[in-house]
Amino acid sequence: MGDRVLAKMGSLLIANRRASDLVARYGGEEFIEMIPETDRQGALRTAEKIRAMAENERIETDDGNEIHCTLSIGVALYSVGELEDACDNEKIIRKADEMLYKAKNAGKNRVMIYP
Known about the structure:
By secondary structure, the chain is α+β, with helices and mostly antiparallel strands. Helix content is about 45%, strand content about 20%. The longest helix is centred in the last third of the chain and has 20 residues, at about 85-105. The protein is elongated and about 50 Å long.
């Protein structure tokens, strides 16, 4: 069942990305999406749209029941000028991951953004 949920969420992310965006599975049950040339408001709007769409999804179980899914999303913003090397990329990912866990700890099914 977990694989089915991950596949559904991955499909949702891919279907709602722009041509310039990058979506990838990152770790066991996490995804990463890079959305270049997007300001804070645009990133928040995109994350909220994805969160709301996931909340409305229903996934059928093997026994014919449906489960309801939610997403917690962590967002980290940066400008191209801030990134100097691969270590900076890792810092951004760590910040997004911190925001993800902040969203989970705040009750799940929400978006947290840094800065």
